[in-house]
Amino acid sequence: MITMKELDVEQIEEIKALFFNIFSNKPWNDDWSDSLQLHEYIEDLIGNNNSLSLGLFENNQLIGLSLGYIMHWCTGTEYYIFEFCIDTEKQGKGLGTDFLNKIEKFAESKKITHIFLQTERTVPAYDFYQKNGFSELKDHVSLFKNFH
Fold this sequence. Notes:
Helix 1 (12-23) crosses helix 2. The chain is α+β, with helices and mostly antiparallel strands. The chain has one domain: 3-Layer(aba) Sandwich (Aminopeptidase), CATH 3.40.630. The model has no long low-confidence stretch (mean pLDDT 94). The chain starts with a strand and ends in a 17-residue tail after the last helix. The protein is built from four helices and five strands; from the N terminus they run E-H-H-E-E-E-H-E-H. Helix content is 32%, strand content 28%. A five-stranded mixed beta sheet has the order 1-2-3-4-5, sandwiched between helices. The longest helix is centred in the C-terminal third of the chain and has 15 residues, at 95-109.
């Protein structure tokens, strides 16, 4: 049985384990070997007043994450997703699309008017989001400055 539930800091170890397993492997290959950095990052996402952390569960096992914030803008309230993922072994079975549909229904019930997220054009997630109705913002630019 597939269900979606809100997550909180009590589930941080389960969240970290799934996040690490997904993003430390292809196609991401992120280096999350610093366990303190990983802990603080996940805590940043799930431990704030405006955090909205959702989990997708299959038979009570966490298989998907949507970690982000509720943001109040002049155009309405949005759910800003920082991290969205499905267990690597469960991908390609429609669970990501199902999860997004559940998130949209949940968001609408909370009077959230839109979802915002960022991804890279060169990863499979880009096509996945477009397939699921997300549009690229033509006037939006992400900027970055590295101090090292």
